[in-house]
Amino acid sequence: MGAGGRTSVPPSNRTVEADYAKRVPHEKPPFSLSQVKKAIPPHCFQRSVIRSFSYVVYDLTIAFCLYYAATNYFHKLSSPLFYLAWLLYGAVQGCILTGVWVIAHECGHHAFSDYQWLDDTVGLVLHSGLLVPYFSWKYSHRRHHSNTGSLDRDEVFVPKKKSSIAWWSKYLNNPLGRVLTLTITLTLGWPLYLAFNVSGRPYDRFACHYDPYGPIYSNRERLQIYISDAGVLAVSYGLIRLVMAKGLAWVVAVYGVPLLVVNGFLVLITYLQHTHPALPHYDSSEWDWLRGALATVDRDYGILNKVFHNITDTHVAHHLFSTMPHYHAMEATNAIKPILGEYYRLCSE
């Protein structure tokens, strides 16, 4: 107590807290996008069909092995271990399938190969298998990349101004309310966004990712929205047939719980990539593309970084160069950090 008893917050903690909340500069960056690109080794922009497919095969092989083990051996376990094994399966399989989701996301950015038709074919198959309307989300996500950080035009996870916060929000600002909000967001947030544009940017009429004539899409995109819907409907039909053949409990355990984990991670990852006390957002008078792209944060998920193909800890580079394949993104991130300086943010907490 030799310092007058001021030991409640050690200096080191204050330093950490100050650094955590230190704002990313919001002024126009002193570098250009071309200068950032020159810092990245040229091979980082090269896409390899063989290497990209190797990740698809790797993920799907692990997913199949997990499925095989669960459906052939779990029934031999005693009651407590039986349920524990299925819970563990759902969590691990959900993580693996999140990696599959990320690869399909790369296809939507034309980062899988040099062939757009191949990217769209692979992306459509993989995303449909996870009940994601591939082209529908591809186009809305592209607009997110075109308007990141804009309070007026970004597609999703735009922070609300105080004047627009709903009156009932104050009743959720307590431990129970926050738990309820997080639970609903992580379990239902993704399907609610796709179906009803919940948490999406406001449009002048009802917006839905399954509606080819909705305000999200242009006339030239509408045919592909039908194709996306057909993919989701085909997988849904297959699931219905599985329920009839195997039973609802079997389908929920084998497919439903892992899918719930995928949806939860998708919402969690994308929300945290664009939400941090240090990140600025801009109105139309201040926003430009480069400042918006830099208003993102890399986050460290430990071993899951590799499982998720580094979409978590290379997100800043991804927003700057979205056609770069994920297997070069970490090298590119390390290359651009010295150029970005204070404009780069990594959160490992």
Automatic annotation (TrEMBL):
Q: Name one GO molecular function term.
A: oxidoreductase activity, acting on paired donors, with oxidation of a pair of donors resulting in the reduction of molecular oxygen to two molecules of water
User: What Gene Ontology terms describe where this protein resides (cellular component)?
Assistant: membrane
**UniProt pathway:** Lipid metabolism
Out of the domains of life, which is the source?
Eukaryota
- State the compartments where it is located: Membrane
Query: Which key words are in the record?
Result: Fatty acid biosynthesis, Fatty acid metabolism, Lipid biosynthesis, Lipid metabolism, Membrane, Oxidoreductase, Transmembrane, Transmembrane helix
| Transmembrane regions listed in the UniProt entry | 55-74, 81-103, 179-196, 223-240, 247-272
Q: Name one Pfam family in it.
A: DUF3474
Residue span, Fatty acid desaturase domain: 80-347
Record GO biological process: fatty acid biosynthetic process
The Fatty acid desaturase N-terminal domain sits at: 24-66
Q: What is its main location?
A: membrane
Is Transmembrane helix among this UniProt entry's keywords? yes
Write out the similarity annotation. Belongs to the fatty acid desaturase type 1 family.
What protein name applies here? Omega-6 fatty acid desaturase, endoplasmic reticulum isozyme 2
**Organism field:** Arachis duranensis
